[in-house]
Specification:
With about 140 residues, this protein is mostly helical. Helices cover about 75% and strands about 0% of the residues.
Length: about 140
Amino acid sequence: MIEVTALLVLFIVAYIVVSTLGFGLYLIISRVKGTSIWDMLEIKDNKAYQLTQKFLPLLNLVVWTVCSYVYFSIASDDHLFTIALIWLIGALVVDYVGFVLIKHPLSVDHKGFYIGQFPWIYFTYAAVFAAPFIASFFI
């Protein structure tokens, strides 16, 4: 049986942790490269962010796998595909709302998000989907 509360809480934890670590990595790379984090009109055009996004799939894989492992330590892993799909859809929706629809300094338009970050954004989504399967090997 899918433990909905644990699934939701761990989704939120994973999303917040990976977002915080990703932004932290972006700040570190910006500092090392000697650039301002706000030096471009859109984040997708920032050279430090372009380098950062290459590390985001691996970062996501690690964080989502750890959260999957925690989930499976308290719940059944009988629904791997369903859990992977729920987390993938959740990440897609939260990313779309948070980085495309809501306008802020880190937001981009549709093209910037789905084409400008190619292929890294799709590797990131693949990592979110694959994480429960990887975690199940360690259970």
